[in-house]
């Protein structure tokens, strides 16, 4: 890609990230709100420099299908709250036992395990409070969006993926089980983030089907890219311990298919994701750019 | 109370509990649903013999104000899922570190900490999935109910109460802080359970105000009664460790006011709760009976 074009795209996504961050600042209780410890812990993890991938996917899919800006941004922020809750709980000593995340000590290292667990619980609950808050979107749409999202992040989605991931760590796995884990642990929520934008827009079932297909392929491609970064990345760039997956014998694509084949699979999935949006032509450029960014990113 | 009347009331509430349990069995994924471990853990804690107080409060308030039976029962079941999630997380080693609950080993003792945390997360998420599922209740009502409930169990309600409870344990407290803890940790959710029935019925704001008042007073009375049982109850009856609050220097009403004054406060609150329902006459009998049961119960 032409460097000037690439810089312009980066600027665009930086602007979107800032919009999401301002919205997150609005929806989160202040650091002094009683009880302060849990609200400080919630803000600490939410503002620990994430990519805001899920909110941005929601915004772009909503923009593509004509959703109203203000309520769309609110929903996008709720997605990041859910993502942050999942990271706080995944990092706990009883789970992945991680001391660092995005270059900063993890929540339980700073606030203790009890407050970290409750900060996660509080973020998940706040997300549903926000998504169900009265607003300009017709109630039927909001309700379907809430139900859709809860399905994606529950035990038949993200939480279930984390369970199987933990149970599979340290033992060998087969391709079907690995895809099961990735599709649930990361894929279901990324798919739901793209769908959230479409549902907020009140899109037709065929539009919803297309962006769901994009989200599903993208979700899997993203997780494979993440596995690859763990093997190829450096601690400085990633801000967390790398080469951990191998040391813990986590089930990953590079471990099962090797690096080059994993790269090919990720590229193929990203292409399939973008093909699902062909009928929108240039209007889907942002979503195509995100797919491209995700499989070429170095951090 | 006449023993024959009392036995008839017991039969009635036993029937209600059984209805709630059948509904819970329907909404929870089966024990063999992949990943089985987390679904087994969810069912283990949900079916560990609870009183089903929150579902029954929701059913009775909904009945009083004319809610439709089927969707009301679904909402009632969701309340019990949230209650169970809160118990699983509260019992964790990093929190209250309890080995027994309702006479059975706690979730983390049976399934390990990781699965216990994820079972809690899964139950909370499933509750919102169910409450936001498409159904016969108008979407506006369902949405308001979802938002109302999320507020009650988040960091400005139940989760916040648990944070302050943990932070206050072991240090002295004053009456205002104690009421703050109890009103949030138990009161907000009990109030929301009564409100859920009214919101499902699409009740007027004045009806909603009356049952909210009942719920608020009842929530506090219930927690004081619980504190008293910890001092007066026996391990056999309670099925969990008693006299724990004193040993851990938990903030409680008996510790601050003494046993007799605490009993007087609980009775006064229960009376105030029932007075809020005077205008309904005999139609509110079930809710009055629940108030009476809660402050005279021995378990």
Q: Assembly type of the shown chains?
A: homodimer
CATH topology category name of chain A: Farnesyl Diphosphate Synthase
Q: Uncertain spans of chain A, ≥5 residues at pLDDT below 50?
A: none
How much of the sequence lies in strands of chain A comes to under 5%
Principal-axis shape of chain A equals globular
Distance between the termini of chain A: 18 Å
CATH superfamily of chain A: Farnesyl Diphosphate Synthase
Radius of gyration of chain A: 18 Å
The CATH architecture term of chain A is Orthogonal Bundle
Number of domains of chain A: 1
Summed over residues and divided by their number, the pLDDT of chain A gives a mean of 91
Largest sheet of chain A: 2 strands, antiparallel
Provide structural commentary:
The structure is a homodimer of 299-residue chains. With 299 residues, the first copy, chain A, is mostly helical. Chain A has one domain (3-296): Farnesyl Diphosphate Synthase (Orthogonal Bundle), CATH 1.10.600. The first copy, chain A, has 15 helices and two strands. Chain A has a two-stranded antiparallel ribbon with strand order 1-2. The two termini of chain A are 18 Å apart. The mean pLDDT of chain A is 91. At the A-B interface, helix 2, helix 6, helix 7 and helix 8 of A face helix 2, helix 6, helix 7 and helix 8 of B.
Give a quick summary of the entry:
Two copies of one chain form a homodimer. Chain A has 299 residues and is an all-alpha fold.
Write the layout of secondary structure elements.
Two copies of one chain form a homodimer.
Chain A: H1 3-27, H2 36-46, H3 53-65, H4 69-91, E1 100-101, E2 104-105, H5 107-111, H6 113-131, H7 139-153, H8 158-168, H9 175-200, H10 205-232, H11 235-238, H12 244-247, H13 253-257, H14 259-275, H15 285-296
Antiparallel strand pairs in A: 1-2
Helix pairs in contact in A: 1-4, 2-6, 3-4, 3-9, 4-6, 4-9, 7-9, 8-9, 9-10, 10-14, 10-15, 14-15
């Amino acid at each position: 890609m032409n460097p000037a074009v690439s810089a312009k795209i980066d600027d665009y996504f930086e602007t979107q990230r800032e919009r999401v961050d301002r919205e997150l600042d609005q929806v989160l209780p202040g650091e002094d709100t009683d009880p302060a410890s849990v609200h400080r812990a919630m803000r600490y993890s939410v503002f620990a420099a994430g990519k805001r991938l899920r909110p941005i996917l929601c915004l772009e899919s909503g923009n593509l299908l004509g959703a109203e800006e203000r309520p769309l941004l609110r929903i996008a922020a709720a997605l990041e709250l859910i993502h942050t809750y999942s990271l706080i709980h995944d990092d706990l000593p009883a789970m992945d036992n991680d001391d660092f995340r995005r270059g900063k000590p993890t929540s339980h290292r700073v606030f203790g395990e009890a407050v970290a667990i409750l900060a996660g619980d509080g973020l998940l609950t706040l997300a549903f409070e926000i998504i169900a808050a009265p607003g300009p979107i017709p109630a039927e749409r909001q309700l379907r969006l809430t139900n859709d999202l809860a399905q994606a992040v529950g035990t038949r989605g993200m939480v279930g993926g984390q369970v199987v991931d933990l149970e599979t760590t340290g033992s060998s796995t087969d391709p079907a089980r690995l895809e099961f884990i990735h599709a649930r642990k990361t894929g279901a929520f990324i798919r739901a983030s793209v769908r959230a934008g479409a549902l907020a827009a009140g899109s037709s079932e065929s539009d919803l089907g297309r962006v769901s297909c994009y989200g599903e392929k993208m979700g899997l491609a993203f997780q494979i890219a993440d596995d690859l970064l763990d093997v190829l990345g450096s601690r400085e760039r990633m801000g967390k311990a790398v080469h951990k997956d191998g040391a813990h014998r986590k089930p990953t694509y590079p471990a099962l298919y090797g690096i080059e084949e994993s790269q090919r699979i990720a590229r193929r999935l990203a292409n399939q994701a973008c093909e699902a949006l062909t009928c929108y032509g240039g209007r889907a450029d942002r979503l195509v750019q995100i797919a491209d960014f995700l499989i070429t990113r170095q951090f």
